[in-house]
Amino acid sequence: MNLIKYTRITWLNLQKTLANFEECSVEEHLRHAFLRLDHDIMSECLPVGHDLSINDQALENGLSGSCACIALVDDIDLYVANTGDCQAVLGVEVDKDHTNTVEMSHAHTSYNSKEVRRVLKSHPNESSHVIKGGRLFGSLAPLRAFGDMMYKWSVKERNQLLKLFKHHLISMYTVKF
């Protein structure tokens, strides 16, 4: 129960923080929108009420991950935001027979050295096994994504949640004939 209370308090603090960014740049709004979406996906997974009921579909969504790449055109300004193993590329016509491409964003994968440094810095005690075979903990290709909640909590928190989710996980991933 301590984890659930802690997580809810953390999310409430994030919501308060996000509310203070009304007077910020388009880039900051996009960044905060991505954070808010991830927050919403993961908070819907948590047990609610006195009986700690769990929404199976929300739990499945939180355990799964999703990448996104968006573009916002505002008059002559182009803004892009992405998370995961996708990126925005702009085609620029040089002349009627030639087009150049311009990378507008970068994929968050192990091929991106800046992203690898960020992950290793945030996992200083796990650097020898946080990225294995080009994947996060040997499993996940994108190093950032919406959802994928089991990768975002500590081992202790994850184990506490697995105890709560155990019967839901068994029923969700059991093949029914």
UniProtKB/TrEMBL annotation:
User: Which domain of life, per UniProt?
Assistant: Eukaryota
Hydrolase keyword on record? yes
Q: Where does it sit, as one GO cellular component term? A: mitochondrion
Which keywords appear in this protein's UniProt record, sorted alphabetically?
Answer: Hydrolase
Annotated PPM-type phosphatase domain residues? 1-177
> GO molecular function of the protein, one example?
[pyruvate dehydrogenase (acetyl-transferring)]-phosphatase activity
UniProt-listed PROSITE patterns: PPM_2 (PS51746)
Give EC number(s), comma-separated: 3.1.3.43
Q: Which residues cross the membrane?
A: none
Q: What is this protein called?
A: PDP
What organism does this protein naturally occur in? Mytilus edulis
